[in-house]
């Protein structure tokens, strides 16, 4: 079994956080000592003197881990911008050493680690260093989260081919309905086409459900939906 996954998406807002938390809850329910990480977060809230990422809080809660917040999310910015841009506006640079140290600590402490990426694979972290490079350095296979809606074939194929060009292993694809979508024919046909053209397994299809809202989630529903919808033969 792998030591974890790097969860990337075809875009921001596709459901990386939800999927990372849902998988963490699923592993935890199966008795796996699972850890979570959101190495770099932007758009964080200022709470007293600290910046807090809602993604990291959701991950910590769904995995039910005791790890310090700074290990789960070592780098945070207030502005909702790409990491390089947020760093430049804060007159700083992203300290990748901190990311690696936190990762190594969590990797030693847990049997399995789920790392949520930042936006998509070509989001810049440093001048010529992108999310794809971080995924490569962490040596975790990817899980690609995509939308079921029109446009997703192009986005998913671009992500998969870019990852493959960069030597990353891909475990499979999770289709997540982050917005309510009635169009069954689009969903069904898009997914079949993505499977045909990528030759990757579909690890699951997560339906839209208001109880999955990451800011206000219902833990039992999260676990129930991920238990029902994720292909556990492939993933566990
Ligand atoms: N299956 C779903 N059902 C309902 N709401 C969802 C679902 N997936 C995602 N969302 C909502 O959509 C938004 C984006 O999801 P999120 O996981 O934060 O995406 P990302 O991490 O890729 O930016 C969040 O507000 C989340 O609560
Ligand atoms: Mg997120």
Separate helix tally: 10
Overall structural domain count: 1
Beta-strand content: 15-25%
Mean pLDDT: 97
Catalytic activity: (7R,8S)-7,8-diammoniononanoate + CO2 + ATP = (4R,5S)-dethiobiotin + ADP + phosphate + 3 H(+); (7R,8S)-8-amino-7-(carboxyamino)nonanoate + ATP = (4R,5S)-dethiobiotin + ADP + phosphate + H(+)
Family: Belongs to the dethiobiotin synthetase family.
Binding site for ATP: 13-18, 55, 116-119, 176-177
Function: Catalyzes a mechanistically unusual reaction, the ATP-dependent insertion of CO2 between the N7 and N8 nitrogen atoms of 7,8-diaminopelargonic acid (DAPA, also called 7,8-diammoniononanoate) to form a ureido ring.
General description of the model:
With 236 residues, the chain is α/β, with parallel strands linked by helices. The protein has a single domain, classed as P-loop containing nucleotide triphosphate hydrolases (Rossmann fold), CATH 3.40.50.300. Helix content is 43%, strand content 20%. It is built from ten helices and twelve strands. The chain has a six-stranded parallel β-sheet, with helices on both faces. Strands 3-6 form a two-stranded parallel ribbon. Helix 1 packs parallel to helix 2 and helix 7 packs parallel to helix 8. It is globular and about 50 Å long. It starts with a strand and ends with a helix. The model has no long low-confidence stretch (mean pLDDT 97). The structure holds adenosine-5'-diphosphate (ADP) and magnesium ion (MG). Adenosine-5'-diphosphate binds next to helix 1. The site of adenosine-5'-diphosphate (ADP) has 18 residues, from helix 1.
């Amino acid at each position: 079994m792998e030591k974890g996954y790097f969860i990337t998406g075809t875009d921001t807002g596709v459901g990386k956080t939800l999927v990372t938390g849902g998988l963490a809850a699923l592993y935890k329910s199966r008795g796996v000592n699972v850890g979570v990480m959101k190495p770099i977060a932007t758009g964080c809230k200022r709470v007293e003197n600290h910046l807090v990422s809602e993604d990291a809080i959701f991950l910590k809660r769904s995995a039910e881990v005791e790890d310090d917040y700074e290990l789960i999310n070592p780098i945070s910015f207030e502005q909702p911008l790409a990491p390089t841009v947020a760093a430049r506006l804060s007159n700083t640079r992203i300290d990748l050493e901190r990311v690696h140290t936190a990762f190594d600590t969590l990797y030693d402490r847990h049997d399995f680690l789920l790392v949520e990426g930042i936006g998509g694979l070509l989001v810049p972290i440093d001048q010529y260093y992108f999310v794809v490079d971080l995924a490569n350095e962490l040596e975790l296979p990817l899980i690609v989260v995509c939308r079921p809606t029109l446009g997703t074939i192009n986005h998913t194929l671009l992500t998969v081919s870019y990852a493959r060009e960069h030597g990353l292993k891909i475990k499979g694809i999770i289709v997540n309905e982050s917005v309510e979508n009635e169009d069954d024919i689009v969903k069904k046909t898009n997914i079949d086409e993505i499977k045909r053209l990528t030759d990757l397994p579909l690890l699951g299809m997560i339906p839209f459900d208001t109880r999955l809202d990451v800011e206000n989630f219902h833990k039992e529903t999260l676990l129930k939906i991920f238990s029902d919808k994720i292909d556990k033969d492939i993933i566990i």
